[in-house]
Amino acid sequence: MAATLKDIAQKAGVSTATVSRVLNHDTTLSVTKNTRDSIFMIAKELNYKRSSKKTNPSFQKRIALVQWYSEEKEQDDLYYMMIREGIEQRSQTQQFDVLRVFHNNIDNIRNYINGIIAVGKFSDDQVQVLANMTNKLVFIDDDQFYNGYDCVVTDFKMGVKRVINFFMEQNIPDIGLIYGVEETTDGKRIVEDPRKVAFEDTMRQKNIYNPEFVFKGDFSKESGYTQMKHAIEELGSNLPHAFFISSDPMASGALQALQEANIKIPERVSIFSFNNTSLTDFVNPELSSVSVATHSMGGTAVDLLKDKLENTEHTAARIELDTKLVFRKSTNQE
């Protein structure tokens, strides 16, 4: 039996989408030289032959994956990397070619695409630039539904509420928050953290909200470290017994600050993070985190775009995906 892309992917430990792009010499794919070399070597070992069958015409459709971060920033934020992988994997099954564009450098994709999936946060001006290129446009992680666009978002409110309920069940009413604020790459839109909004609403409903326990950062590990240090210094013995932190990188920085202050986790302070990237397993203690369906977000966006391309009666949709709590050693589970 002839070797397939799936055979190569399993042996190389990567996705079939990655194998396809490497074998097609896609220079925009962000993988290491060792990974590329390994894929070519495995393909040779398995005597992989490309199919001589005619390609389905839909395979010629090219979609642009426009990411608001730079390539370097993506390497530091596994959340968006996982969404991208979901897009690439579903695109291969739907026979779409994917062109990646970083940091809104979109001039080179004019007239060469059938549709756009925009990942991240975009200002009105940036949205208009994309819309001027094509009306086949889907957003991920940016709620553009009320502007008439398809979008795939996360149910932040329920995820945060579940975390607060968990702490309350453990008789921990003093819950702190470290959250992030972002702005679009053109600086024209400040993006409020929806987790902060959900946290404040839920805590106020329970009459346990304390603004002194809330600290603002920027989603980086360094910011999480700095804000937790501020909390420790400013609150002293009044430091909350639990913190909800808006991202895994911020939470890893907060853990470091607590450990430097000899504050035991979770005995004195419990930590619950958000996104559940692979980072949660590589810190000590491992982070409890709200799991976001990142791969499904990417795949769902591709399906929406496919329907938009093929269905003349397509109606704009806002798809909100649920989250779930994943418990690890940064919280007590008794």
Secondary-structure map:
Layout: H1 5-12, H2 16-23, H3 33-45, E1 62-67, H4 71-76, H5 78-93, E2 97-102, E3 115-119, H6 124-133, E4 137-140, E5 150-154, H7 156-169, E6 175-180, E7 182-183, E8 190-191, H8 194-205, E9 214-217, H9 221-235, E10 242-245, H10 248-260, E11 270-275, E12 288-292, H11 294-310, E13 318-321, E14 323-326
Helix pairs in contact: 1-2, 1-3, 2-5, 5-11, 7-8, 9-10
What does this protein look like?
There is one protein chain. This protein is an alpha/beta fold. Helices cover 40% and strands 19% of the residues. The chain folds into 2 domains: 5-153 and 294-321, Response regulator (Rossmann fold, 3-Layer(aba) Sandwich); 156-292, Response regulator (Rossmann fold, 3-Layer(aba) Sandwich), CATH 3.40.50.2300. It is built from 11 helices and 14 strands. The chain has a 6-stranded parallel beta sheet with strand order 2-1-3-4-5-13, covered by helices on one side. The longest helix has 17 residues, at 294-310. The radius of gyration is 22 Å and the shape is globular.
Please give a quick description of this structure:
The chain is 40% helix and 19% strand. With 334 residues, it is α/β, with parallel strands linked by helices.
